[in-house]
Write a structure and sequence with these properties.
Layout lengths: L6 E4 L3 H12 L4 E4 L15 E2 L7 H20 L6 E2 L3 E3 L4 H13 L5 E3 L1 H4 L12 E4 L3 E3 L1 H14 L3 E3 L5 E6 L2 E7 L4 E3 L2 E4 L5 H6 L11 E7 L9 E3 L4 E5 L3 E5 L8 E2 L5 E2 L2 H14 L8 E8 L9 E4 L6 E5 L3 H18 L17
Parallel strand pairs: 1-2, 1-13, 2-9, 5-15, 13-22
Antiparallel strand pairs: 3-8, 4-8, 5-7, 6-7, 10-11, 11-12, 14-17, 14-20, 15-16, 16-17, 18-19, 21-22
Helix pairs in contact: 1-5, 1-8, 2-8
Keywords: Oxidoreductase
Organism: Amycolatopsis bartoniae
Protein name: D-amino-acid oxidase
C-alpha cells in the first residue's frame, strides 16, 4: 500500500480482529468497526474446534493445517492459557463403515488419525455409554474465540489501532467502482485505501450492496455453555447427538445440528429456542461422562453460522470492487490466525498469496 493509506476492517469476530492485528503489526493504520461488541456474533457461539478432520480438498486441508500451526505457535508461547488447548479429539457415529472411511481419508494425507476405543483416549468418558471404536485425532485442539479476540484486541490497541464498537450496520463506500471506506448506520464515515468485510453470515449481504454475489448457506445454530462441571474432560467430542469440549472456568461448551429446525428466527434476525431443547442437549452430553455428572446450562447463544454456498472459504479482493477484501468461512476458528495473516499481507503488499488462490470470490462470477 502507498504510504499513509488506511484500512477499515468491518467485523469484530476472529477474522476481522486477526486481520486488523496483523496489519497493525506491519505498521498499517487500521480502524476496526463492528456493529455491536467484539465477539458478539458467530465467534461468540462457535465450538471452535481446531482441526482438518474428515475429507476435503487438498488446498483446503493445507490451509487448515497451516492454521493449526499458527495456533501451536501461540500455544507454545504460553502453554498455561486455559482458553487454548491441544488435547486431541474423538469422533464416532452409528455407521462403522463411515468412520473407517473417514479414518482412511485422514491417513491418506498424513493426518494423525487412529481407530481406538474412545474411553481409552478420553478417561472422562463412561465406557458403558460410548461405542467400542472411534476416530481419534491426537493433534487437534480447541480455542475459546472470545478469549482469543480479547487477547488480539489488546495487542491491536496497544499498537495504536482503533476499535469502534456499537456502530450498527455498515456499508462500503465506493468512487469510480473502487472501495473508498465505510459509512455506518448513523452516518459516520471512515475513509480508507482498503476495506475488509468480515461480518460472518452478514458478509454476502454487505457485498451484495456492491452488486457482488457470494452464495450463502449459513444455517441457524446454537452454542450452550454450562455451569462449572465436575468432569476432567480434555478432548473435543464429536458424537451423533452432541459435540462438546472443555471451556474456560471448568465449564463445557456444546452444540449439534439436530435441533436447527426448532430455532425460531424473527425478521430482525434475533433467534429463540425452547429451553427443553437446551436441557435435552445437556442431558445427551451428561450421559457420555463418567461419574454421574449432570451438566446444567448457564447460557446459550443462537444465530447464523457463516457457511459459503459451496462450503469452501471465501478470501481475497473483490474483482468487481478493487480495494474491498472479503473474509467469509465456516472454519473461522481454525483459519482465524492464518487467514488474518495472509489477507493482511495481500492488502499491504498487493501481492496475492498462492494459498488463497483456490478461495477467491471471483469463482462465483461464472
Amino acid at each position: 500500500m502507498s504510504e499513509g493509506k488506511h484500512v477499515v476492517v468491518v467485523g469484530g469476530g476472529i477474522l476481522g480482529v486477526s486481520t486488523a492485528t496483523h496489519l497493525r503489526r506491519d505498521g498499517v493504520p487500521v480502524v476496526l468497526v463492528t456493529e455491536g461488541e467484539l465477539a458478539d456474533g458467530a465467534s461468540g457461539r462457535s465450538l471452535s474446534w481446531l482441526n482438518s478432520a474428515g475429507s476435503r480438498s487438498a488446498a483446503y486441508h493445507a490451509l487448515r493445517v497451516t492454521g493449526i500451526d499458527r495456533y501451536r505457535t501461540l500455544f507454545a508461547a504460553d502453554p498455561t492459557r486455559e482458553w487454548l488447548r491441544f488435547d486431541g479429539a474423538l469422533h464416532w457415529s452409528a455407521d462403522r463403515n463411515a468412520m473407517e472411511q473417514r479414518h482412511r481419508a485422514e491417513t491418506a494425507h498424513g493426518y494423525d488419525s487412529k481407530l481406538v476405543p474412545p474411553a481409552e483416549a478420553e478417561p472422562a468418558l463412561d465406557p458403558a455409554a460410548v461405542p467400542d471404536v472411534a476416530v481419534h485425532n491426537p493433534g487437534e485442539g480447541w480455542v475459546s474465540l472470545p478469549h482469543l479476540i480479547e487477547h488480539l484486541a489488546a495487542e491491536f490497541t496497544r499498537l495504536g489501532g482503533r476499535i469502534v464498537t456499537g456502530a450498527g450496520k455498515a456499508s462500503v463506500t465506493t468512487a469510480g467502482g473502487v472501495a473508498t471506506g465505510v459509512v455506518t448506520a448513523s452516518g459516520e464515515r471512515f475513509e480508507a485505501g482498503a476495506v475488509v468485510v468480515a461480518c460472518g453470515a452478514a458478509t454476502p449481504a454487505v457485498v451484495g450492496e456492491l452488486g457482488v454475489s457470494i452464495p450463502d448457506s449459513s444455517p441457524l445454530s446454537m452454542l450452550v455453555v454450562t455451569e462449572p462441571a465436575g468432569t476432567a474432560l480434555s478432548a473435543v467430542l464429536n458424537t451423533p447427538r452432541v459435540c462438546l469440549r472443555p471451556n474456560p472456568g471448568h465449564t463445557i461448551a456444546m452444540d449439534q445440528d439436530w435441533y436447527t429446525d426448532r430455532i425460531a428466527e424473527a425478521p430482525d434476525g434475533t433467534c429463540t429456542i425452547d429451553e427443553s431443547v437446551v436441557k435435552e442437549l445437556t442431558a445427551e452430553a451428561s450421559a457420555l461422562l463418567d461419574g454421574d455428572v449432570e451438566l446444567t446450562a448457564a447460557s446459550w447463544k443462537l444465530g447464523r453460522k457463516p457457511v459459503p454456498g459451496d462450503g469452501e472459504p471465501v478470501f481475497g479482493e473483490l474483482a468487481e470492487v478493487p480495494g474491498c477484501f472479503v473474509a467469509f468461512t465456516h472454519s473461522g476458528a481454525t483459519l482465524g490466525l492464518i487467514a488474518g495473516e495472509l489477507l493482511a499481507g495481500e492488502i499491504r503488499t498487493g501481492t496475492r498469496h498462492p494459498m488463497l488462490d483456490p478461495f477467491r470470490p471471483e469463482r462465483f462470477r461464472h
